[in-house]
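In the design runs reported in the main text, the only information available to the sequence generator was the tokenized backbone. The following block is the verbatim input for one such run; it is reproduced so that readers can re-run the procedure and compare outputs position by position.
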């Protein structure tokens, strides 16, 4: 028997909004509230509010916190300044990707690691095991913590209204910053402590949609207040609550990888085209270094490409990719009909050197080959 999906602190709120739920990463999460197309467009054109409380939060503290994370993760976390964040990965000894994650440096000896929902147990366990030789404390706070995301061109306007106070101002704004200065001065992949809708929170300028946006990390007890304030303010700006369906098409348009699709334990960061994340030159030691270094030296036999189609038939994960009129050269990892562009887009791993940008390939969609053009990623980039 399989265990029932977990529920976030906001489950009842979503149920009252008549959300359609889906099991994602072991959590019962809103797939959509009304129309995934409307929710997608709200984020691209106005603003959307997401419950991301299924994501994990693992706090690492202690005199050797930075040194420990340099060992446990593939990037050099000790080089990250307080108030900043870094996208990285945690890998096996053989270089296989356990998860991709974001790590915030909250103080000299305090970091917050945010893994993906389904990988939280594996990441927490790996960090605990790797911490044995270091003077650090690893605390998995995922069950007690919620995350609300505000994403879209009007995200700044929403945040200016719902953030009450700045506890620790971002470096770009300086001490004594007003809320407006702190929000507007916050750089991408940076965070500050503040009060949102009356609740102590970590406010980060990060996201997974390809738009400007913020993620608010708050204790479960304050999640409903933060969600209510964010949604009410977003609605006043013609925004919507958004589910995982729109989040997936948004991240696909932005060319962002999804664990389980573009990333897995069978792939190294080099295989995924993200070898640059591994600090093999600046760090003499970290878990998986030798395997990743070897992968960098040998090169990969596959590359991740973008595919742009015509018509309305989307290429889905697992669909074979063929040379035009010829042999199979790879498989689709993610695909959908792009709401923004109006035609199908997909990402696929194919044999290195098999095709170049601009070439035409064929995707086998339920027994019928459909033409797709190889394009550069991402499919969509917002105007800065």
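Verbatim output:
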């Amino acid at each position: 028997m399989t265990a029932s999906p977990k529920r976030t602190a906001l489950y009842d709120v979503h149920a009252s909004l008549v959300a359609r739920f889906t099991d994602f990463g072991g959590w019962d999460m809103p797939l959509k509230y009304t129309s995934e197309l409307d929710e997608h467009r709200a984020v691209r054109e106005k603003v959307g509010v997401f419950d991301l409380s299924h994501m994990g939060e693992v706090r690492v503290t202690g005199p050797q916190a930075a040194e420990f994370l340099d060992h446990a993760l593939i990037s050099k976390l000790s080089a990250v300044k307080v108030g900043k964040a870094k996208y990285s990965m945690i890998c096996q000894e053989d270089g296989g990707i356990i998860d991709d994650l974001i790590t915030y440096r909250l103080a000299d000896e305090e970091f917050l690691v945010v893994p993906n929902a389904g990988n939280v147990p594996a990441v927490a366990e790996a960090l605990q095991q790797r911490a044995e030789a270091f003077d650090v404390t690893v605390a998995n706070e995922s069950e007690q913590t919620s995350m609300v995301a505000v994403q879209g061109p009007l995200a700044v306007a929403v945040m200016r209204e719902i953030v009450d106070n700045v506890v620790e101002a971002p470096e770009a704004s300086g001490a004594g910053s007003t809320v407006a200065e702190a929000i507007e001065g916050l750089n991408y992949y940076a965070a500050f402590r503040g009060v949102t809708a009356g609740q102590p929170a970590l406010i980060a300028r990060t996201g997974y949609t390809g738009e400007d946006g913020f993620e608010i990390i708050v204790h479960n007890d304050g999640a409903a207040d933060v969600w209510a304030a964010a949604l009410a303010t977003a609605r006043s700006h013609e925004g919507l609550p958004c589910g995982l369906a729109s989040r997936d098409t948004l991240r696909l348009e932005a060319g962002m990888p999804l664990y389980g699709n573009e990333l897995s334990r069978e792939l190294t960061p080099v295989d995924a085209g993200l070898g640059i994340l591994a600090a093999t030159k600046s760090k003499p030691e970290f878990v998986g270094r030798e395997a990743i270094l070897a992968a960098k030296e040998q090169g990969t036999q596959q590359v991740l490409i973008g595919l742009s189609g015509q018509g309305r038939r989307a290429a889905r994960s697992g669909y074979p990719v063929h040379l035009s009129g010829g042999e199979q050269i790879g498989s689709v990892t993610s695909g959908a009909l792009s709401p923004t562009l109006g035609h199908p887009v997909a990402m696929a791993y194919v044999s290195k050197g098999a095709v170049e940008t601009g070439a035409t390939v064929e995707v086998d969609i339920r027994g019928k080959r459909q033409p797709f053009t190889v394009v550069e990623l991402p499919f969509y980039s917002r105007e800065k």
